[in-house]
């Protein structure tokens, strides 16, 4: 059997996708050279974006598998190198679509990415659990999803989605790690040893701006933001930077929690954002004997939805009620959100249908240019 041509090997390498940037390594100009010996031995030279690229092994394996499967190939060797400064600059410029200066792609009027900022009145109501499950469910349904974990007090998204690698950098561009098919960036990835962040408003604003402009998100269908609880500075920064973002309010059924959640939602009136709906989490606990215990009382979700509708002047639906389930907590703790687990539980169903209703919604027009110009 004759050895393949260099062109044939190059064409086959289109199948090797960079796990972070998610484009073929050929398109990213990472393939430096291809050599083919008459006896079928192939040497592929690959240049990584950085010397310590954590995905080196994955790329080596993928190249070996793809080329090794070609007819006439007897052996594959991958010769790893590193891109030059000039090559990295070129790559960065290509990823930014030829534009030099960083800008927030989602804030452009023609952006088609739906943005949901997940907020709550107080901590511990399950805001991060809802965000992580929504992201995983939407990605499993084939959407391109990104998550910004901006919860400075409890950056738990990476753990819940099982993120294993840190972000990498191509010059000043940040490549977000991908877990469960979701691109994730968290404030916890930029703090020392996961220590709590003691930042004031302007620093948070700057961090958020960096997450949105310096991170390479690619084309996203949905961007989810896990905000810190309450009505803090970051909610205002989000509204300024992403005027087309919509708010999802998470509460528990408890009246006290509902009252503070309302306040978090009503901020939308001042920031001109739309509240897309309310999620009531920890609604009840189903007992093995079939009885239901309402551990945190009842009616909080309905209350927030009714009060926000009254205050904002439009319908704010209660989109889901998610029961308390041990498996939901365990799933988050082990890095595989409940929606990706095999067992079918009421909480999983509630989260999955919430994800579908949010991904199939028509996009709101708030903050978007309608492209209307005066006549005559
Ligand atoms: N429906 C549920 N059933 C069982 N456990 C839950 C449920 N929702 C959340 N939890 C658990 O409750 C804890 C708090 O949840 P989570 O971290 O999502 O809250 P949070 O509102 O994001 O809190 P913070 O803002 O402080 O980060 C976690 O251990 C999570 O696994």
Automatic annotation (TrEMBL):
Iron recorded as keyword: yes
Known partners and oligomeric status: Homodimer.
Chain positions recorded as ATP binding sites: 121-128
InterPro entries in UniProt: FSCA_dom_sf, MIP18-like, Mrp-like_CS, Mrp/NBP35_ATP-bd, NUBPL-like, P-loop_NTPase, YlxH/NBP35
Molecular function GO terms recorded: ATP binding
Domain MIP18 family-like: 7-78
Stated role: Binds and transfers iron-sulfur (Fe-S) clusters to target apoproteins. Can hydrolyze ATP.
Domain of life: Bacteria
UniProt record similarity statement: In the N-terminal section; belongs to the MIP18 family.
Keywords of this entry: ATP-binding, Hydrolase, Iron, Iron-sulfur, Metal-binding, Nucleotide-binding
Entry protein name: Iron-sulfur cluster carrier protein
């Amino acid at each position: 059997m004759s050895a393949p041509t260099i062109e044939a090997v190059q064409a086959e390498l289109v199948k090797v996708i960079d796990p972070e940037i998610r484009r073929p390594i050929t398109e990213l100009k990472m393939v430096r050279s291809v050599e083919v010996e008459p006896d079928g031995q192939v040497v592929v030279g690959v240049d990584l974006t950085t010397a310590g690229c954590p995905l080196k092994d994955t790329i080596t394996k993928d190249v070996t598998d793809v080329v090794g499967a070609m007819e006439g190939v007897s052996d594959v060797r991958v010769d790893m190198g590193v891109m030059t400064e000039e090559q990295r600059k070129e790559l960065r410029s290509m990823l930014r679509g030829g534009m030099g200066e960083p800008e927030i792609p989602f804030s452009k009027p023609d952006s088609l990415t739906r943005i949901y900022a997940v907020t709550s009145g107080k901590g511990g109501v399950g805001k991060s659990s809802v965000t992580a499950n929504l992201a995983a469910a939407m990605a499993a349904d084939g959407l391109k999803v990104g998550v910004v974990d901006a919860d400075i007090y409890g950056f738990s998204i990476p753990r819940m989605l099982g993120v294993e690698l840190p972000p990498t950098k191509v010059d000043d561009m940040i490549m977000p790690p991908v877990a469960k098919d979701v691109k994730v960036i968290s404030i916890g990835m930029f703090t020392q040893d996961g220590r709590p962040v003691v930042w004031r408003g302007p620093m948070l604003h700057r961090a958020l701006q960096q997450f949105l402009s310096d991170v390479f998100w690619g084309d996203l269908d949905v961007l989810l933001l896990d905000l810190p609880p309450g009505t803090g500075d970051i909610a205002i920064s989000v509204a300024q930077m992403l005027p087309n973002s919509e708010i999802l309010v998470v509460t528990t059924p408890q009246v006290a929690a509902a009252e503070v959640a309302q306040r978090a939602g009503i901020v939308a009136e001042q920031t001109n954002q739309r509240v897309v709906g309310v999620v009531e989490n920890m609604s009840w606990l189903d007992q093995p004997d079939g009885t239901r215990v309402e551990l945190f009382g009842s009616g909080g979700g309905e209350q927030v939805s009714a009060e926000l509708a009254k205050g904002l002047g439009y319908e704010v639906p209660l989109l889901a009620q998610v029961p308390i389930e041990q498996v939901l907590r365990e799933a988050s703790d082990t890095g595989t959100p409940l929606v990706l687990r095999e067992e079918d539980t009421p909480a999983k169903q509630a989260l999955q249908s919430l994800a579908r209703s949010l991904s199939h919604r028509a996009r709101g027009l708030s903050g978007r240019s309608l492209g209307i110009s005066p006549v005559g």
